[in-house]
From TrEMBL:
The keyword Lipoprotein applies. Residues 301-310 have a biased composition (Basic and acidic residues). Belongs to the MlaA family. Keywords: Lipoprotein, Signal. GO terms for cellular component: membrane. It comes from the Bacteria. Residues 288-310 are annotated as: Disordered. The keyword Signal applies. It comes from Aquabacterium lacunae. GO terms for biological process: intermembrane phospholipid transfer. InterPro entries: MlaA. This is VacJ family lipoprotein. Residues 1-26 form the signal peptide.
């Protein structure tokens, strides 16, 4: 009798038990019960990014012509569209799944193995779906916020789905270890290169980068699960105040760039840069919570220029 399967079973059970415990620990008032640990992992990831990933991405952008960069992005997206199609069907979105099959077929043939995104020009837009979103669609709660080494922000639900997402991702089209490693490396560099501008700006405007990324990630994942149409009850598990402001609930001051407006809808991101200062805004989560609709692209360009972000 082999001992290995038993060991694997114990490890699997322990992992599932840990995930279940983390899910139970998360509450509407505290979506991040592991914050102390998560911040350490976040710091480690930031150090790796600063020392290795970001410099490689900058070098890639510097030496690679833009058409080649676009071709790499399109090629990788075409591979990802295959797994997205499977998830669309698993979510019961049959029509969109069929459309995605057509998208992959067009880009794989007319688009020269996906190097050219012909389908988008034909108004067959990408559907960025993964198994974590599928589990959310099936009613699995997101659970606690988790920061994974090297991989970054996640939740208990997304972490449980991660092995399948990695297995069925872009590398599934290749069998040779060398090819798999090349595709993985290209995907990391491509994603990081496309985020260079945003990460540089974020470093200048966010008072607490960890908190900003966490809250923005959790909001984005919720929006993805509901395809942008989040029902009111989905906000019940949302923290009462995004930035845990020390300011009183009333009298919160707002710093708005010219042309930005306030409305009474649910808040999206709890920050807003201005030309003079860069600050986070405390956003109370309630029915009358103000939401910022700015800055405009022109204002963002002005901010980037004033901060000398490249």
């Amino acid at each position: 009798m082999s001992v290995a399967p038993s060991v694997r079973s114990v490890r699997t059970a322990a992992a599932l038990g840990t995930l279940a415990l983390l899910t139970a620990c998360a509450t509407p008032q505290n979506r991040d019960p592991m914050e102390a640990f998560n911040r350490k992992v976040f710091g480690f990831n930031e150090a790796v990014d600063t020392a290795v990933v970001a410099p490689v991405a900058r070098g890639y952008v510097a030496v690679t012509p833009q058409p080649v960069q676009t071709g790499v992005t399109n090629f990788l997206n075409n591979l990802k569209d295959v797994w997205a199609t499977v998830n669309l069907f698993l979510q019961g979105r049959v029509g969109e799944g069929a459309q995605n099959i057509l998208r992959v077929a067009i880009n794989s043939t007319l688009g020269v193995a996906g190097l050219v995104d012909v389908a988008t020009e034909l108004q067959l837009d990408r559907k960025d779906e993964d198994f974590g979103q599928t589990l959310g669609t099936w009613g699995v709660p997101s659970g606690a916020y988790v920061v994974l080494p090297f991989l970054g922000p996640s939740t208990v639900r997304d972490t449980a789905a991660l092995p399948l997402d990695l297995y069925a991702g872009p590398t599934q089209a290749f069998s040779e270890v060398r090819d798999i490693n090349v595709v993985r490396g290209l995907n990391i560099i491509d994603v990081r290169a496309r985020l260079l501008g945003a990460s540089d700006l974020l470093g200048d405007v966010a008072l607490d980068k960890y908190t900003f990324i966490r809250d923005a990630f959790l909001q984005r994942r919720r929006s993805q699960v509901y395809n942008g149409d989040v029902p009111e009850e989905a906000y019940d598990d949302e923290p009462q105040a995004w930035w845990q402001p020390t300011l009183p609930a009333e009298g919160v001051s707002w710093s708005l760039p010219t042309g930005s407006t306030l409305n009474t809808a649910r808040p999206t991101l709890g920050w807003l840069p201005t030309h003079q200062t860069a600050s986070l805004v405390a956003v109370p989560v309630n029915e009358q919570a103000p939401q910022m609709s700015g800055p405009t692209p022109e204002e963002m360009a002005g901010l980037r220029e004033s901060l000398d972000v490249r």
